[in-house]
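Take a look at my tokenised protein here and describe the backbone shape.
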Amino acid sequence: MLDQAIQIFLDERKEQWLKGKISGTTTDEEKEEFERQAAEKFSLPILLPDMAKRAGQLSLSSHPAKYSHPGAKPTPVIAEAEGAIDGFLRTGNVHVELDVLGNAAALDVYKFLSLKMTDGKTILTHLKNKSSFIKEQFQIPAVPFDELEQGLLEIIKDKTSSIKTSDKVKQVYFPVNGEGYHLLSILTPSNIIYELKNRIMNMHFSDDAKEIRAAKNANKPHERNLSEIYGLSVIGYGGTKPQNISVLNSENGGKAYLLLSMPPSLKTQTVRPPKVNFFSDSLWPKLFKDDFQKFHDLLTSDARNIHVRKRIKSVIKSIFYQVADRLWMIRKLESGWSDHDTYQRLAAFQKIWLDQQYQEMRKQNLQWFESVKQGLARWFVNTYPALLTGKALPIGDEHIRHIKAIIEDCEEALQ
């Protein structure tokens, strides 16, 4: 009997394929034929040999070169280093999984190999250990297990027999003993930068962080401290096609965080509070173009499963967390700025929301936040068609209710 994780993987692939084939005009006979084809096409005896052939198109790497340039094709590098208590965020001091790069069309092979079986171990782990369990799972006609195993394990095969770099990778001359230079290729430790992002997100938006902030807002003591990291910058990799860079990059939407580097001290951009309306004065549509494009792509995707719905929710949350970043940048300004005549046309609820002189008022009465939620939902609904001119789908009441629910999920960051 197939492991449940493998069966779900096959069923999802089959469902996705059928959705692209079956429409309202499909006859019963055609539908039956498509279902027969899908059952054959996405059966393990057919898929396994195909994935075994394509696994070699992918490579594991700790420092993918495509983060420097999508066209770079040097030898995949897996760096190893000894750990040390030296305070540095570096290879050897952070225990993370390797990244995956190669042909984007073969990424389904890595997804398959990453499936966790009933015992909690991945298919890849079972293959590396040559477990009897995976031999039993992969007993198919026509292709012996050893051949499947050899093909699938190509993903972890050492490909460094002839090491080469690329002229598209950033390079630097490094002095050696005062006698000459080594030309070094600068690569990005993708697994570490996304581990850093995960830790920052957990620090800011985890359930524990929300609980601590709630206690702080209520002027109540809490046994744990609230940690914050200021001066973060966002860097993007791959534009609208993050999957062309690496698996980790695709999973994170192509966005990572950069910590503030000191020295040198970088002067942050001057923040100008809104004079009339925060949503039109401070939330420039172009700042959110990539995320609204992802939202549109998912909304128009043929796939209609729980994973797509989760990704849509994640993209919408990302947009509102970026709005929260703008909000907190304005709140860092000297309190009382909204009293100036320049801001007399700014709505009262926005002054309460943005100006830190109203911090206590915000805690005592949350009626103002209802207006904020309405404004955020209206801004989202208006910005989407403005950025996707002529392509945007109509957003109905059901979508608006869903957007408002997500805003409520982000309340801790937006209040």
